[in-house]
Amino acid sequence: MHMHLKHKPAWKAVAAFLLSALFVSAAFFGWRGILYLRYRNFRASDPVLQSADRTEVKREMTEGDFYVSTTGDDANAGTKDAPFRTLERAMEAVRGTDKTGRRGLTVCIEAGEYRVSSLTFGAADSGTADCPVTYRADGGEVILHAGVTLRPEDFRPARDCPAIADRLTFDAREHVVVLDLTQEPYGLTAKDWGRISAIGSYNTADKYDGDWTGPLYCELFVNDARQSLARYPDSGFLLTEEVVKMGQGKEYDDSHRTRENWDELRNPEPDVYRVSDELAERIGGWKDLRDVWMFGFWKYDWADASTPILSFDKTTRELTPRFVSLFGTRTDAPYYFFNVLEELTAAGEWYLDRENGLLCLWKPENFAAARIDLSLSETPVIQGEADHVVFDGLTICGTRSDAVVLRGDDVTVQNCLVKNVAGNALCLTGSDNRALRNEITHTGKGGIVLTGGDTDTLRAGNCKAENNLIHDWSEIYQTYQPAVTLCGVGNVCAHNEIYNSPHEAITYTGNNHLIEYNLIHDVCLLSDDAGAIYAGRSWVWYGNVIRYNCIYALGSEGHAPNGIYMDDALSGQEITGNLLVNVPRYALHLGGGRDLHVTGNIIINAGDRAVSYDDRARDGALNGGWFDHAAKGGDMWTALYASPWQSGAWQTAFPQYKAMTDDFTKGDTAGFIPNPANSTLQGNVIFDRRSSIGEVAKAASRFGSIGGNVIYPLYRINTFFADAANGDYRIRDLEKLQKEIPAFREIPLDRIGRTES
């Protein structure tokens, strides 16, 4: 007898298996765990905002009072038909003009390239409130160049220069070209091109006897791209291997403790590393180590520094830098070698034989048509002190210093292009100063630094950085060189588009600053312990507002930075209405401060946690935790006592101070200053793979108002927003959301980024 078995359809069997697997997984991981596993590799679409088109420098023909032309003559009258030759002569004419009764005074600069070392302004160059003085590009691009342009036809093949060719690889000899800078038409000397000095925000060169600090060496730009001094590896980093000896750094172990005699210590002993056999063989092939340097992040990825090589023993493979790492060192720290002629092996690299003035360049494509610029000046292109002055539509480049450094009131730099400089682009100090609609790119340090206002009275500086395009900056110093820095009281950073940098985008010190409507992406590319918007370590900087900014696409190559980072007990800040998407670590990193008001933000798919709010200051003050800056006698207290926090002006502006106490016997009260107290973390909308707000210290919850946030699983973004798949993060049903968060206001996405005005 044959038995006929009845089988379930295949699809039913599969469905039954998946369902049982789901229940088993739910029992093991929990439903939130299943959603986390499902979305752990999820990435939301980048926001697409209707920002203004790329900034175009305005150079319309205008009527002026004086004219400057590359074909003019300083003996001329400075009229349109008989223009001056130099800006220095035009400045002289402005000084000699009576401004009484005038509504303005304009110097029109004809299109062309003007070689300048430094234009230095003084009180006599000032305008008045009724008669500002304007220096304006007239009818085309006006370039103020503090360097020199090198002609491709003046280079010769490296194979024709044996002293160079003998140290190059066989392949490099066919690609490298050489120029003698000492010969005509250049006639440069060692003073012009400069020596190599220490770089990096945390170098220790000033601890050593000798001449190790100074202006950045001259730099080479090909078609506006900064060339790298010949380096190994050509890109990326090596990693330190065995640490043979820890030197006498400021931090002597992993506890963040400071070496007792650090401030007085001279010529501290450096660290010593042992390199691999392969690397030892390579270093041993370099003919001359006397001016070979190393650049790296020796302990922390927020602390870059450089050092020359002191010695190398090929037998033991021990490599000794000349300078100690400030914070100590570790294995697997990223670094590279630079200024190595033998490593001139790739496009984008160059080398300068400083003894003989021989500039070596890996020949770029279409070399005959290439624009090749060498920076020379050690001073800003525009510097000094003046009031009521406007610079409009100029291209500024070629200095080994900052581009513009001015002190005064009512100074405006607008519609300018600042590029290819070693330092910052614009440093303005005073009141009512403005940086408007500029493009800033390829700086060695930062972008715009605005300083203004009075700390004692809290008088606002009213300085503004607005509608600027800032990208590809911090190319030499790679940490703490922001696109925009606000200092003092009451200044504004608004409507800027900021991208492509190894570290932070915006930072500030002081009070009552406003940071709003900025579009920030692709920053903190080489950092973890960093934030796109960052400030930290102060109980004094109350009153700053960070609102309506869009932040996305941070980090790279495994680096996981934060979005908005209020570090080391920073207190008294308002963070509202910001959109943060795909922030790799914490979207909002609140480092133990008090009086933080965080409301109305939208956080989508933070990689680690949406919010981290710790109690480091309380722990350091009461429990001996690592943040001993908040312990008795720590520098947090020193800064607080040196501030006007108990003055009438401050306690009127910031009434929170009235309830604060520095009495350590009251450490368990909300008023005790190191406590993360009186903060509001409410009314935020969070889309999270764990359906969690993140990590909030018990003390922050105990002493503050934490709650009333709406937390959704990630799959809800497709129904919550207009078109999340295509980067449209407008809310579909605002009324429905406001039933859960009555105070929520939609983020004005259409106003974020650069505007037309």
Gist of the model:
Helix content is 13%, strand content 30%.
Number of helices: 13
User: What is the average per-residue confidence, as pLDDT, rounded to a whole number?
Assistant: 93
- Helix percentage: 10-25%
Report the portion of residues in β strands.
25-35%
Please provide the count of β strands.
57
Tell me the span between the first and last alpha carbons: 91 Å
Main β-sheet description: 25 strands, parallel
Poorly predicted residue ranges: 1-8
**Would you tell me the structural class of the helices and strands?**
alpha/beta
Task: Calculate Rg over CA atoms.
Answer: 29 Å
Label the overall shape.
globular
Question: Would you give an account of this structure?
Answer:
This protein has 757 residues and is an alpha/beta fold. The protein has a domain at 147-374. 13% of the residues lie in helices and 30% in strands. The protein has 13 helices and 57 strands. The strands form six sheets. It has a 25-stranded parallel β-sheet that branches. Strand 15 and strand 16 (305-313) form a beta hairpin. Helix 1 crosses helix 2 (31-39). The longest helix has 20 residues, at 10-29. It is globular. The N and C termini lie far apart (91 Å).
